[in-house]
User: Fold Phosphonate ABC transporter ATP-binding protein from Agarivorans aestuarii.
Amino acid sequence: MNNQVITVKQLNKHFESNHALKSVNLNVQQGEMVALLGPSGSGKSTLLRHLNGLVSSDKNSKGYIEVLGTPVQKDGKFCKTVRKSRSQTGYIFQQFNLVSRLSVLQNVLIGALSATPSWRSLSGRFTFEQKRQALAALKRVGLEQFALQRVSTLSGGQQQRVAIARALMQQAKIILADEPIASLDPESSRIVMEILTDINKQEGIAVVVTLHQVDYAKRYCPRVVALKLGEVFYDGPSEHLNEAKLAALYGSQTELTNTENQDQAVPQLWPQMA
Ligand SMILES: Nc1ncnc2c1ncn2[C@@H]1O[C@H](COP(=O)(O)OP(=O)(O)OP(=O)(O)O)[C@@H](O)[C@H]1O
Assistant:
């Protein structure tokens, strides 16, 4: 049985003269938990966005992406099946992408929209079963007591957990998380990473997560794919990512990516995370 859930072949992406992704190849199997590492600007987010059909690759460059057995894009053109794979892919953003004026429960229910007739979703009428599932998803991330509260009243870490519950409600078969902990404090980061790990282990859902902190990658992700200047620089077990490889990947930034030094390091290296 083919358990491959992500196939990327020969992916190239230019933003004008900037060659952001250079012949990237990547295979991810069902049940894997993969950290996408690399210095700022190395192409992590661009790669993740290609997987969900948010960005198209260079035309005529023979690039090909398949997610969950469904072609997403080929040769710089989206395939007709892109919506299908998107509906099965949970995408977690750094800034949560929640609807701030809606309640926590309503935000989770948004995950069910692709499986809801439009007349129901337009009138905001979800079935009893959908509401039960949404509450179960909230319980899974430890937030059921906040179900009826406006989502904007929750902390950043809690909002990210709502976004994960929304992906569960979507019945996502894989999760792509783009810097999900970049704006969170260490304790909230730990909780979010543990929830993602738990979903990966319990449901066998593949998770690909872009991270800036090497120690989180090593702690939670058995496999690391590291990009450097748009190329795959390392793809292998996170435990084999030694100091020499990290130094070559990040240069002088290496020690500063350790979260123990986060308070001093992050504002200097990545001002957007401060
Ligand atoms: N929409 C865009 N238009 C022009 N250039 C872009 C666009 N998106 C990304 N880039 C460029 O592509 C390169 C890769 O960016 P990307 O955001 O993927 O890197 P990253 O590794 O995710 O960085 P960070 O860790 O800082 O988020 C960068 O040089 C960036 O400036």
User: Anything to note?
Assistant: The longest strand covers residues 4-15. Residues 253-274 have pLDDT under 50 and may be disordered.
